[in-house]
Design a protein that fits this description.
Rossmann fold; five-stranded parallel beta sheet; 333 residues
Length: 333
């Protein structure tokens, strides 16, 4: 941005102009969280008057983000944000390691190998006994752990950063029910993988709202496509042959592009994540709405939470809010 102002910084950081003034002038009344947000926003905007009060040497922190392999566009965005945002944080090193996707034993082995290699780890993990045991090993080794997108709630980890997935599933069902005619109709649901607790919770919320508010919608099938685009396309084609009168689809996980490739006719389609590919599908009308979980915010919260924990500083994580994006309110950047 050419010649950004303090007001521009305040807007990007989500704080008041007075807070920006306090941070820029080194007044201690601004919280550590506000200081971090303001300095990051100022750096991102290229503010020339930046003073960098954080440049005094702090304890170096090493972080690892364990993200599942594959072509999931949202996971790819998470990885990009790790690289971009960590670059703006003094004395913080963050790397991305690729781990097995849906094989719990292989995933657990990969997680155990991270022991002692960093101060903190962020994990997108499936909820399986072997995986829980592996993460427990990291915690017992005094490593700080946060989960992203899908939680492991039984473990005493630092916290979960992601949507309320039951709420997200209910919201998807509500949108689908309101967009469809108020008469009996067939619908189907896809899960990227029910190995992820987050996808299970989305399905649960989806079923709840259908039962409560839209009993005339008949859920004919729930399809687990294991986050595979080709599998999603093939299963969607088969579903349409069995139910040519299908009226609506909810995809709770990845592989949205594969489902869209097989779509025909006027079918209401609700999915997750405002990735570049999904934005294209919104624009050409094959996708009606996406429920976004803000990859940038999730990585920012994970970086800050793990860094503050490593330095034994207090920090309050802010969960992302559920946001619905239609064609008409697509983000401009």
């Amino acid at each position: 941005m050419p010649n950004p102002t303090l007001a521009d910084i305040a807007e990007k950081a989500g704080v008041s102009l007075a807070t920006v003034d306090r941070v820029m002038n080194g007044r201690s009344s601004a919280s550590k969280r506000s200081q971090t947000q303001v300095m990051q926003a100022a750096t991102d905007l290229g503010y020339q008057g930046l003073r960098h009060p954080t440049k005094s040497r702090k304890q170096p922190v090493k972080l690892i983000f364990a993200l599942p392999e594959g072509t999931n566009a949202f996971i790819h965005e998470l990885g990009q944000n790790v690289t971009e945002q960590a670059r703006q944080m003094p004395d913080v090193t963050a790397s991305v390691v690729t781990v097995p996707r849906l094989n719990p034993v292989a995933l657990a082995a990969s997680i155990k190998r991270l022991k002692g290699k960093a101060d903190g780890v962020a994990i997108v993990a499936i909820d399986h006994p072997a995986v829980r045991d592996a993460v427990k090993h990291l915690i017992e080794a005094k490593m700080h752990v946060v989960t992203i997108a899908s939680d492991l709630p039984s473990l005493p980890h630092l916290g979960y950063i992601g949507l309320d997935n039951v709420q997200a599933g209910r919201l998807a069902g509500y949108i689908l029910g309101r967009l469809l005619p108020q008469k009996p109709a067939k619908i189907a649901a896809f899960a990227g993988s029910l190995s992820y607790r987050g996808h299970q919770e989305r399905e649960m919320g989806f079923r709840q709202i259908l039962s409560e508010d839209f009993p005339h919608l008949h859920l004919v099938e729930i399809v687990d496509v294991r986050e595979d685009r080709k599998e999603a396309r093939n299963r969607m084609s088969a579903l349409l042959k069995t139910h040519p009168d299908l009226a609506g689809i909810y995809n709770a996980g990845g592989a949205t592009a594969g489902i869209a490739e097989a779509l025909s006719g006027d079918i209401v389609f609700i999915a997750h994540d405002a990735t570049k590919g999904n934005e294209t599908l919104l624009l050409d009308g094959r996708l009606d709405a996406v429920i976004d979980q803000n990859a940038r915010l999730q990585i920012r919260e994970a970086l800050l939470a793990l860094t503050h924990a490593a330095r034994q500083e207090d920090f309050q994580m802010v969960p992302p809010r559920v946001q619905v994006i239609f064609r008409e309110n697509l983000p401009s950047e």
